[in-house]
């Protein structure tokens, strides 16, 4: 009899423990602090919003993270959904980093993940550039990492031009990565030409590309010195990489 | 089989099932009415409890008021009606004001923050209201207000903790509130704090807060701190910001500080002083002439960078008009050449009539030689453009 009582308790726990779980609850979004169920609304674009883009933009402006999250799962693949991914990554991170990172790692499509990663790293680098850099460094090599490195480089350029140049080199395979690298080499050169040349010299870039970037960086530096009248600081624009380690 | 054998197991089953159901929240799928736009809240997603009482005198309850407010246009940054009503509610009922912000979007976050801060000040147990916030944004806002209030009240104890343990908007709000409190009390302690964490936008903002206070108390020490501790890449912009505010409140003391500054900080201070002249609403004189006069009053070694700054921040038209005054003021060693070089740099980048006007005014071989010196470094020109310019200066 005791055995059958124990079995009864076990069955009851199993039956009582099963929860009716809506799809939202299984999603990492459910890991946010508890939100009353009636606020997990499925957003429907109101008529006054002429396009889905304006609607997404309005949701993002007002940090309606829950609605954006639902949109990323209900919109068909395309530009509107991409926009929702970008905005969600950007708006959610400063509100709840842990939940955002758990969500982002479970985004199944690489292209969508790349969009979200790019925005996340933008915000995160503003908050904590060191932690954001460590996170990007740990990503597996590939196009997503390149695109994220590209974004990180742009985000930290005003704080640390030399590190930004290193990330731009890492992200040069991303779309527009070459233009980004050129800009960041000139930017880094404008602030610290020696560090810029050192980074270029030790990089894995082709020798010809190193030369081109070094010339651009020094031209920008020289131009800034000319503007300030520091003629003595003008540098040769033809540094030789082969003669130095 | 005796039916009594099933009695105990059955009792255990129902007892355990009942206890599980009681203590574990059962989640059900969203009701159909929940699937509607958030811009049209009804009682279901309103933070106001159902059945809110009518106010005396037949006025609308908060819930009805929320429903009656117009929905803002999609391009509206703010919902003005909502912000106005929030301001009315704020002195007497900050929680009602905060709920307004939660219930309807199109709401100015600054106004909701003001409501949150008023709520936290008025209600020492406001933390319990976090569970009544209906979305992440509102909850985060209230949490930010709670932490900001706590850190501002005990900056020495809580500032480091907030910087190290909080995250996102909450961290930013708490650290900045604590920093503002500590800056007023002891800017040196805040400067020490700002140097501890790795540089970030937040630590730079904290440094700026501390320096704005420090420069009022000990300008030379503040300038020295900038020189030693602000990262090179941001030194010019941050010093310009700090000196700019100081030049507005204490222009004479700012000018007196100039000779004591490290060379790299002199240009930002000169620029700050010029901006103070340009932005002074009580000054009826012509700003360009006043700036030239100010430069003439500067120590000799500061006049050349000051001329360069003035030219760079003025329009080509203003520079062309002020050209005679500039040249007559630039009498010291190298000043005339510096003026010409700077004018040529601007003229070469100007697609308007500035370049032609300027080049037409260069007559003497000395002036042309000074201008020619700059040409090779003008990266905005093509090789052909540089050659053409040099030909004109021969």
Choose one word for the global shape of chain B.
elongated
- What structural class do helix, strand and pairing data of chain A support? mainly alpha
Low-confidence stretches of chain B: 21-55
Evaluate the radius of gyration of chain B: 32 Å
- Rounded to the nearest angstrom, the distance between the terminal CA atoms of chain A is 84 Å
Q: Please bin the fraction of helical residues of chain B.
A: 55-70%
The N- and C-terminal alpha carbons of chain B lie at a distance of: 122 Å
Put simply, the count of helices of chain A is 13
The share of residues in extended strands of chain A comes to under 5%
Extended strand count of chain A: 0
Low-confidence stretches of chain A: 11-43
Oligomeric organization of the protein chains: heterodimer
Strand pairing plus helix content of chain B: what structural class? mainly alpha
Instruction: Tell me the helix content of chain A.
Output: 55-70%
Task: Please tell me about this protein's structure.
- The complex is a heterodimer of chains A (245) and B (394).
- By secondary structure, chain A is mainly α.
- Chain A is built from 13 helices and no strands.
- In chain A, helix 7 (110-127) packs antiparallel against helix 8 and helix 9 (143-156) packs antiparallel against helix 10 (161-170).
- Chain A is elongated, with a radius of gyration of 25 Å.
- Mean pLDDT of chain A is 79; it is low at 11-43.
- Chain B is mostly helical and 394 residues long.
- In chain B, helix 8 runs antiparallel to helix 9, helix 15 (287-296) packs antiparallel against helix 16 and helix 17 runs antiparallel to helix 18.
- Mean pLDDT of chain B is 79; it is low at 21-55.
- Classes of the chains: A mainly alpha (245), B mainly alpha (394).
- Chains A and B meet through helix 1, helix 3, helix 4 and helix 13 of A and helix 1, helix 6, helix 8, helix 10 and helix 12 of B.
